[in-house]
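CHAIN AND CONFORMATION:

***
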Amino acid sequence: MISFSEAIEQTADEDRALLIGNGFSSKYTSYSTLLSKSGLEEGSDLRSLFDALETVDFEAVVHSLEQAAIVEMAYGNAVHSNELVTDAQKVREALVNAVRTTHPAHRDELAAYYESGASFLSNFKKVFTLNYDLLLYWVNLESRHLSDGFGKGTDADNFKGPFYEDAWCDIYNLHGGLHLFQDDRGDVIKALNGGDGVIATITKTIVERKRLPVYVAEGSSNAKMLKINSVGYLRHCYDELLSNTASHLFVYGHSADDNDAHIYRAIFSSGVKKVYFGVYKPTEEKIRVFRGQLARHKELGGRSIDFTFYDAASADLWADA
């Protein structure tokens, strides 16, 4: 076990990439599932539909309701069809409620901490994120050290895009993001601050335009890969992780559980020389568990990439300015 600064010293003058998980945002964002914060009560018809479909993906439920509404209308059941359409809108509004409940409303609320966050990011040339909150997006605005690949797009209706695969890009949203949506052509566009904040743009888009963000909510690794493969942008981000050639990859705020086996399979198949895995409040038991998990992922990845552990808390990510 070494400190974060020691890990940085060991990798001086070499390229570093970063993978961040929920721990990056947990100080400010609730990372229980959005469904649990949606306001949909346990036992209600809509909550039961999530259970019946075995998903926490709001888009999947909305799609099922809208398809069922078409069937009901075709069978002459117009009243029930309209009820299903209304329920689909209730699910969209529940997602908005979840976003507002789990996420800071405005960037300025965290302004005192962005300097240390930007300093942390400055150690890395590429950042891969598994989070779908806006904290990385907001922190990067502090220094604009990293590009998110939307620079070639144009601004329209509080969005910027589309994302171009050949654009300059250092940030890869492996599991999408609340600020990312698909346009009519299926291209991914990024929500902007239209004066009331980015969260306001997101909520208006969900409720009024009836579009849901592009994000991966599935529980298992296989289900997550199915969603990733269904969206060109997500697949591009995953391929970038798979082909990553940075000398060293740092993991911060993420476990190595099997539900993200696809991520570690990509890491241990990539061109990196070494993985530095952050452990928060390390104990011998935690190290033993993580060592076993990483060894298993390494075997499945197929490349002999070494890994070591550093104390995640020593990175002092959210220091008050």
